Structure of Tripeptidyl peptidase protein:
Amino acid sequence: MLPIVTPIVLLTLVFALDIALSSPVHPCTPYAVKDSHVVPRKWTRVGPAPADHRINLQIGLKQSQFDELERHLYEVSDPSHHRYGQHLTSAEVDELVKPSDDALELVHDWFLDNGIDRHRLEYNSAKNWIKGNLDAETLIAIDYPTPLIAFTIGGRPPFDPSAPTTTDTNEPYVTWLNYVLAQPDLPQTISTSYGADEQTVPYAYATLACQQFAQLGAGGITLLFASGDSGVGPTRACLSNDGKNTTMFLPSFPASCPYVTTVGATKDFAPEVAALDPANNFASGVGFSNYFPHPAYQDPYVQDYIAGLGRVSVPDGVGRGSGGAGWDECEYADGGGGGWFGE
């Protein structure tokens, strides 16, 4: 089987619609369509794309030694391990995640079968990829004079609609990751306040993004993500998007990825509790991932938490799983205010 992760095609509206309704593979080969995605709302088919239209086609290949990369990540991140703080270099990370020669040859053959010469291909370094203003001002006020770098990425990623989220407002994390992984120098800490319901992010896309987060982590970059704003899920909309409308908790991604640091919000003292503001429809996001298992270091905490639920009635499938558990850390975050042009 061709070890290709979700292909991402950057193209015009007209071309996308035409290709979405036709076969993207050579008819004489054993290849098959791995994933397909819904046409964005308000798009209409107007006809075939021009024959001379140029496409920037990006194909992600399976990382050959991700298990080994994960081992390094946990060792250099564990204060009790003798390798703590001995992060990998970019070259060492690239060596672990580069695809196998067989995978590259299969992709090259596929291109040749479809009339695309090798000299037209470009690779990244590992060869595995053919509310911002308020957040920034808050960081500047707290951390001055620490330098601040803002990343802004356009576009939208693959998307699976759900009851609470019918329009693709998700962030193109893989586009951003491909960019930052190619940079020679990066900040030691990168904080992101955006996220999405995990189930709206196609599994293959989420897996690829999560593995690329691990690449940054193994190199010593701390990735902070907000846990979310809807508790275990939006009110009256905690339903699966697989066509069954099963009642379930809706964790947030990338907060659900085990290779990032998920930050939750608390309020009050003695006891300190999860931040909740019903008047503004806010509850700090929590929950277990439905995509990724929790790492071994979370075992005792997750087991204690589950045991502490006691006789609390939780329907099957909505919160007693083995997925990655948020939060990793929490901050007091109750009663913040903001102004915009005097309002």
Q: What stands out?
A: The first helix runs from residue 13 to 20. Confidence is low (pLDDT under 50) at residues 1-27. The domain at 133-309 is CATH 3.40.50.200 (Rossmann fold). Residues 265 and 333 are 5 Å apart (CA to CA).
